[in-house]
Amino acid sequence: MALEPDLKEELRDQIHDCINKRGVHQECDVGWFRQDLKPNPPTRLIDVDTNDPSIVRLIVTAEDLQKDFIPKYLTLSYCWGSTNGHAKTTRATIAARREGIAVHSLPKTIQDAIQLTRLLKFRYLWIDAICIIQSDLDDVYLDDWNTEAPRIGSYYLHSKCLISASAASDSSQGLFVKQNARKYPLRTCALAFKNEKQEYICLSVPRPSPSEDWPAEPLRSRGWCLQEAVLSPRILHWSKHALIWQCHGTTKSPTYGNDLNTARDIRTSQSHISFAQEPDHAMAIAWTELISRYSKMHFTFETDRLVAIQGLANRLVDLHGGEYFAGVFRSHLAGVPTWSWATRCLNIWFLPVSHSFIRSTKPNVFPYNRSPINLDTPEKRALRFEAPLLNINLGRPFTETDIVSTVQRPVFSCHVSFTEDSEDEYVVNFEYDAERLMPERFDMLEVLFLGLHVLHKLRGYISPSEFEESTVIDPDTIVSCEGILLRKAGQYYERIGRLDFDMPKNYKRRISLKKLMDSNRKNVCLI
Cβ neighbours of residue 291 under 8 Å, at least 6 residues apart? Predict the structure, then answer.
């Protein structure tokens, strides 16, 4: 593949204009994309500038580069597929790769990325399969992966540009996919219809937009892609319809110019801009929006789900402070749908909490070891706090007549009394994470109440900063109580579903329910 000379120059100029903050790129390195003055370089990089163009070399930055030298490098985002085995560096091959790697031995997408790196006049390239020592059938080795995986987000954040193989579902397909030729611009034309009345018909040729198939492109469903795209300050998307340049300052294409509707893109969803705002907004809104989208993405190994978003969380902590572990921020414990949301392979949605029932009773809510790797025992992932924990006597199993929704999973609705001596009943909605998690006996259900969601008929959603005790008894509010269904797992609890119900309008009943919550606060250890 050979890029046209004009296109090569345009891409080079675009990258360097952005790096040097020229033109529309004045704000490209502020806020979310602010660069560290002395970032730690990746442990290893691919050196593409060897004397022999058919060879590249794997270098160890601490050994092969001068001290304090900050290498400028590109990164690759791509689908491994079933043909990426030849790309993997293992303990058996790393010594030879320090001497050199034959480019032709690598999958086509990686070959193309090497070629593009050279064309753009960069010397170094970071690719996960090559730069991290991988496990294989003959050698199950995870030490290097365990060290490098939490750092991957930083590698993308400090790269000069991300090469995104958006249209390829397998590393054998290459970066430069075939696109429809558009040598001549499309214009609307007018044809005479009735000359005597001077009537005309305007004909326009449908023009495919690169954003139309954006969500369906293979890379969009890959779980690791989210962190790579949201953290990278600049991206070259090699998509089905066009080559697209994207940075904080602009989105454009050699084919379409600046006329792009990229509202569906994960970067132009404004989430990364929201991250740069005040901490409460970044944690409560942008993070939950991203997690909702992330929960629908796919992984070859589900154990990667928390690791592959660690870099995003680290960036939020860098910008706003706070404590984070395994998908959860301490300041917003009640706003998550489970501890942890990643324990269920489900489409996750979040309901913002106006008032949290959760209290921290000890300095260490999270485990001492905060590594996202190997959360294989309850002790490594236990969350300790205080919240209302009640037993609900349902008295009977759910039936088909109780089903009120089947959008994702069945949602059951029935009347429940929270205490045996109370005549107050509430219409409660129950949603189990999976049918297999529904209990065989329904005489007692354990419920952990997380908080209240409050809507005012004039002011709308009441945020935590606006919430007051009087809000609960205000007749102009709709107050929903949110909780999760639990089951005992030894000395711990684990989530099996969720529930919600609207608090009654009646003043006395609301006060009574609030007292019930306060009197049933217990120390809980949730896994």
Answer: 309, 327, 341, 348, 350
Whole-prediction pTM: 0.82
SS3 243: strand
Task: State phi, psi for 484 to the nearest 5 degrees.
Answer: -125, 145
Name the amino acid, one letter, at 350.
F
Please name which of 130, 139, 67 lies closest in space to residue 101, comparing C-alpha atoms.
130
Q: Which two tokens stand for residue 126?
A: 């970071």
Helix locations, 232-309, DSSP H: 271-275, 279-281, 287-294
3-state secondary structure labels for all residues of 300-363: CCHHHCCHHHHHHHHHHHHHHCCCEECCEEHHHHHHCCCCCHHHCCCCCCCCCCCEECCECCCC
Residue 231 and residue 408: Cα distance in Å, rounded? 30
**What DSSP element (H or E) covers 450?**
strand 445-456
> 3-state SS of the chain: helix, strand, coil percent to 5?
30, 25, 45
Burial tier of 304 (Cβ tally within 10 Å: 0-12, 13-18, 19+):
middle
Q: Which of 92-101, 149-158, 243-252, 348-357 has the lowest mean pLDDT?
A: 348-357
Contact call for residues 230 and 32 (beta carbons, < 8 A): no
Q: E strands within 346-444?
A: 355-356, 383-392, 403-405, 411-416, 426-432
The answer to whether residues 358 and 334 touch, using CB atoms and an 8 Å cutoff, is yes
What are the tens digits of pLDDT across the range 91-119?
A: 999 999 999 999 999 999 999 999 999 99
DSSP 8-class letter at 276: T
